[in-house]
Design brief:
Length: 289
């Protein structure tokens, strides 16, 4: 599928996470998470389908043919059956579906039963070294992190049970992993896509990295250019359609500004909520060129 012909909506279904990454912007001060009420969840997804599958200004500009609902968090798999219910209803409505997860809760049973439902399965992975993962915060409260070997095992199993599901790795380049070398890992697991993102200093507590540091990381991995997709801070701003756990559109700010939210889609028409936060369709399309 030509990705430029597909619109992607990133639904951060929960704020809860079993990790504590220092740079995480997915914090909304414990909002009312819509997934807790199945009727509200279905109403939200139905409103999204009704708007984005019908003629609308974004569709007129992008001429997309499919819409993918990407479940993110927090950690979506913490919701267990409620996530599966949301996933199945999204498919019923006609969405393509995907998930971005830290991978820690992916079981062999989940892969066998559900991976075929996903157009794409993405795993966030910021360091091959377990000690560095822990410094970043990519670990559970008990100190457990996703090992190189478990990541490889997940990819191998998904390729077996669901060969049509694309596999992706997301890496946020931050102050703790700027010297990391992923070449061996990527050669081993062979993702369809490796997205390399520059840490976004959404809150004052998040330390930025320099242009030179980010570019050095990218240059170190030129041999992976066939699968590597690079996103600097500017390309990440206003180029994503993002929903918070309480069903509001939001956009990330820069330089400690936090983010900008619309009213909830449960009480506000989709077009009005979109206008309250902004979305740059041209910047969205550029990410897929």
């Amino acid at each position: 599928m030509n990705k430029a012909n597909q619109l992607v909506i990133n639904y951060h279904i929960t704020e809860k996470c079993n990790y504590d990454c220092h740079y995480c912007y997915a914090k909304w001060a414990k909002p009312n998470e819509i997934h807790r009420n199945i009727d509200d969840m279905r109403s939200l997804l139905f409103k999204l389908a009704q708007y984005f599958f019908s003629p609308n200004p974004i569709k007129k500009e992008l001429k997309y043919q499919r819409v993918r609902l990407n479940f993110a968090g927090g950690e979506p798999l913490l919701l267990k059956q409620r996530f599966i219910d949301a996933l199945d209803y999204a498919i019923e409505l006609g969405f393509d579906t995907s998930i971005i997860t830290n991978g820690h809760l992916i079981t062999d049973q989940f892969i066998e039963a559900h991976s075929h439902k996903l157009q794409l399965l993405g795993i966030s992975y910021d360091a091959c070294d377990l000690e560095r993962q822990q410094i970043i915060g990519r670990k559970t409260a008990a100190g457990h992190a996703l090992s190189f070997h478990r990541l490889e095992s997940i990819f191998t199993q998904v390729k077996h049970y669901s060969p049509h599901t694309e596999l992706k790795v997301n890496t946020v380049v931050n102050t703790f992993n700027i010297e990391e070398d992923f070449t061996t890992l990527m050669a081993r697991i062979q993702p369809h896509k490796w997205k390399v993102l520059r840490v976004l200093p959404v809150f004052d507590s998040v330390q930025a990295i320099t242009d030179q540091q980010f570019q050095a990381f990218v240059d170190r991995h030129r041999s992976m250019s066939h699968c590597m997709s690079v996103e600097d801070n500017d390309s990440m701003t206003n180029s994503y359609l993002m929903l918070s756990p309480d069903g509001a559109f939001f956009q990330n700010g820069n330089d400690g500004q936090g983010y900008f939210k619309s009213r909830s889609l449960l009480t506000t028409p989709v077009d009005v909520a979109l206008a309250e936060t902004g979305f740059d369709a041209e910047k969205f399309s550029q990410r897929y060129q």
